[in-house]
Amino acid sequence: MSCCNVGLILACCAVLASGVPDKLQPLKTRASSKIIGGTPAAGGEFPWHVSLQNNYDGQNWTHVCDGSIISSEFILTHAWCAYNPSRPRIVAGTLNLTTPGSIHNITEMITDDRTRRHLALVRVSPPFQFGCNTRPVQLPARFAETTAGSVFTVTAWVPLEIFEPYSTLFKLQSLIVPKDECSILLEGFVDLIYFICATDVNSLSEVNSMCSHQSYGAPLVHDGELRGVFYSPIYCDDRPTVYIEVSLFRDWIFRVTGV
Ligand SMILES: *[C@@H]1O[C@H](CO)[C@@H](O)[C@H](O)[C@H]1NC(C)=O
Ligand SMILES: *[C@@H]1O[C@H](CO)[C@@H](O)[C@H](O)[C@H]1NC(C)=O
Ligand SMILES: *[C@@H]1O[C@H](CO)[C@@H](O)[C@H](O)[C@H]1NC(C)=O
Where is the signal peptide (predicted)? Predict the structure, then answer.
């Protein structure tokens, strides 16, 4: 039976949740602004989106980075997330971090071969079991170009209220900005060679919503294909946010993971 139809997701989620032995402790509170734009994701809509968590106090798990499942053994995230010293884990298959779909240990973290500071591949154990709420995202062809003017979707774990723990998966539309225009807007602050620029749409304020969160590794997706990985808002205003351009790292991803 296919259960990947959004209409059937509730039944599927109940099945998955009942099979989870390990209960997640409430997350540690962390300062953050309330999300400004965006809406909650629906079940099965972004089944590749995972949470990388750390256990700083030896008791409670805290969301640290966002990531995307790309195969049964690997997720793709921001390289920064690989330089964290404590013992991390991955939570997949849920829209609510207090009720994990599945929990995975991290066995290996590999930073990209060009700069070591853009992307990281994270190997999990046990492997993901694919179902309606846990599935890999498609990867772009090598050097595939991202067309300025297209509208993409970025997803991120967010707290529902200021000072609440990161708990809920939100989605936000984001418009791809031409690189030359972006370079001027960002005043040459970053060399855009490895980046895509995008600006949030439907934001209810002049403040860029992706700016409110340290959503390192959050996926920027179009038609189920992963094109960008959230890198930094650079400036916390209405100027574009930068995402790592995944198609430029395609050979390295293939060499490490076989996908
Ligand atoms: C862990 O979470 C529990 C429940 O919210 C809380 O009572 C406890 O203080 C937390 N532990 C630490 C070390 O923060
Ligand atoms: C997440 O799950 C917990 C535990 O079941 C529940 O108390 C909380 O209301 C849920 N949060 C949302 C946003 O649905
Ligand atoms: C994760 O690692 C811990 C500590 O080594 C181990 O106790 C636990 O069984 C592992 N969990 C999984 C799902 O492999």
Answer: 1-19
